[in-house]
Amino acid sequence: MRVYVVDNGGQWTHREWRVLKYLGVDTKIVPNDSPMSDLQGLDGLVLSGGAPRVGIDPEKMGKNGEYLDAFGGPILGICAGHQFMATHLGGAAAPAKVPEFGKSVLKVHHPDVLFEGLPDRFEVWESHNDEVTVLPPDFTALASSPNCSVQAMRHRERPLFGLQFHPEVEHTQFGSDIFRNFLKVCENSTEHEVLGA
Amino acid sequence: MTFDAKAFIVEQVEAIPKQVPGKAIIACSGGVDSTTAAVLASRALGDRLLAVYVDTGLMRKHETEDVARTLKDLKVNHRILRAADEFFAALRGIVDPEKKRVIIGNKFVELFEREAKPFGADHLVQGTIAPDWIESGGQLRDRIKTHHNVAGLPPNMKVKLVEPLRDLYKDEVRAVARALGVRVAERQPFPGPGLAVRIVGEVTPDKAALVRDASAIVEEEIEAAAKDKRLALPWQYFAVLLPIQTVGVHGDLRVYGQTIAVRAVDSIDGMTAVYSKIPHEVLDRISTRITNEVPGINRVVYDASNKPPATIEWE
Predict the structure, then answer these.
(1) Residue B198 placed within a domain
(2) Which of A103, B40, B266, B267 has its CB 3.0 to 4.6 Å from that of B273, i.e. a possible disulfide?
């Protein structure tokens, strides 16, 4: 299975690559301005977090928008990747009332494929100044933390997922299980959607 | 699948000679990363490699003797440089932590290039690991701190860099070190700029001596407690000298002394960390010993911050 990590400049982009590698995936970190043609034939994409403030400097998010429109396969957006997914698809992201750094507790309200087999409450690690304030149309919020209502979201039909917290770091509980669940989606998503083609 | 240290060793021992057709020197601090890189490079290059250790005056207690022994045991061709005066002179008056890191990085390369020339080396092998270049930033990535071996390199550097451990994290480097029989495989991480980033404010030989002695006490007490199973050995544990003076009373006399912060964290890869829950009786011993045995220190505080939002080192 081939799943690449789109690098939006996060401190933990390389950790995402490491978790995927440990799960036996053929993976690579690619710059966020890579042409769509470099992503042909992949089974899934991870849009990493990063220093760019999605609301303030969206131009630093490169071709993330094009990937969301035209990649077709499963996409997992993390932190800035998650926030950009929301804004690009008609929702909104803005500075968080209470930014979260470090330890927090996730509450899963809507058990979905990403959280399959996991408890409905566990410890996750955060590092964000902005957050999703308006869900895009056709998205469902899946989980929250005491200071952030959209910690996880997914598109109701398309395999698009967003996480505000960081499943790739060692101190987040069940992080690699979440990646494993995402990979199951990648595996089962045999029909690559044809969008914008 | 997890990390296969043996396969990694075979791969690198084949790859390094392709990158280094001639001779190379390796920057070796005696820590896990650079010692592991030195052994890998030594296996790959034999006597075409010279390991250079620099005593910056900012090393831990007994470090230089210890490193000399490690390199000798591992049969790595090496040289020990004593350059404390040069480092202290370059750091005089500098308070900004980022400036300290850049000055130290530049100084290291100056010394390595000075050694490379007579040896005939045109490559510099470094034990750079993933968090070093990640946290040093570049392009989209913000600079969290200048790792001296990445962002502290001078732009006009003549020797070419070879970094065999670039994609590894500390836990993976330790696995390679164990497979290579490196004695320091389990040693706690120590920053390249050494005690300079554990002295908040200007670096002087006197302050280096204080923080060195305080750190040795932290290490002794925590290691002794771990040996007796009173705590699990943290990932990293050390002292930081703060630029704060506070009032104390010593033998019915007022003193106005300096402050040591004790830092201990648990981590796997250094990218996230939680502060260690050190038992109070261990903290008590550390505090009593530091304030009694290190002249000038009359207060000890414990750092209860995680990474993020803090980082492990203070600077």
Answers:
(1) no
(2) B267
